[in-house]
Amino acid sequence: MFNVYYYVLETLSDWELGYVTAELHSGRYFKKQSPHVSVKTVGSTKDPITTMGGLTVAPDITVDEIIAEPSAVLLLPGADTWDDQKHTPIIEKAVELLECGAIVAAICGATTALAEAGVLDGRIHTSNSLEYLNMVSSNYNGQQYYKDVKAIADGELITGSSAGGLLFAGIVLEKLDVFAEDTLEAWYNYFNTGDATYFYTLLKTLDN
Q1: DSSP structure string for 76-99
Q2: Is the model's pLDDT at 208 over the cut of 70?
Q3: For a FRET experiment, which of 42, 60, 94, 163 has its CA 20 to 30 Å from that of 66?
């Protein structure tokens, strides 16, 4: 079983984790005998937040309720409010999760918080751009590990740009091994190209 923790904060970028949370929560394309996945929203408090798209989200739990274990997955979305000190505990929890072998997946603005905490200094990673990290994160010293791609993984750390939501999701799904290999390939190709042929291929893989 995987416990997926989705951190929510003011101005959360709705689209960035849309692909991965929809698939993990619905399980609609999961392979047979796939591990169970539980998705919970996490906040610095239980107070509701408002996303960039104007949606109100009430966190299921708070940061202190996250269980640090290898089967945990922490999803950190982009937002314009990552410089608020109240988010320090979730970044500390991210470090703890990485140390115990859990997956931490950060996209867009969340990468700046990891950079500021030194998490990216020795790991291959990406973000919106190298210039963006240099500009926003004064403590960032991981320039030599930066890759100019939409999303990438280094061990259990996954990072992505604001335009990399689909690839980012594909990497998370692959890491969790909840899709069959041919299902994941067809799923990615369909959403990446819009070619209906891939959608029918996707459905056929579910019969195997």
Answers
A1: E---S-TTSGGGHHHHHHHHHHHH
A2: no
A3: 163
Strands (E), 111-165: 151-154, 157-160
Calpha distance 90→39 (Å, rounded): 17
- Domain borders along the chain are 2-177, 181-208
Residue 177: left (phi > 0), alpha (psi -120 to 50), or beta? left
Domain covering 2-177 in this structure, CATH number? 3.40.50.880
How many other β-carbons are positioned within 10 Å of the β-carbon of residue 193?
Answer: 10
Determine the average pLDDT of the residues in 193-204: 97
In whole angstroms, give the CA distance from residue 23 to residue 28. 7
For residue range 116-163, what is the model confidence (pLDDT) as tens digits? Answer: 999 999 999 999 999 999 999 999 999 999 999 999 999 999 999 999
- Residue 93 makes CB contacts below 8 A (sequence gap 6+) with 63, 66, 68, 74
Report the distance separating Cα 99 and Cα 111, nearest Å.
Answer: 17
CA 81 – CA 88 distance, rounded (Å): 12
Q: Are 23 and 58 in contact (CB under 8 A)?
A: no
- Based on the residue annotation, tell me whether 100 is a catalytic residue of this protein: no
Longest alpha-carbon distance in the chain: 51
Which position among 108, 110, 119, 171 bears the catalytic label? 108
Question: How far is Cα 162 from Cα 129, in angstroms, rounded to an integer?
Answer: 10
Q: What is the pLDDT of residues 186-195, one digit of tens each?
A: 999 999 999 9
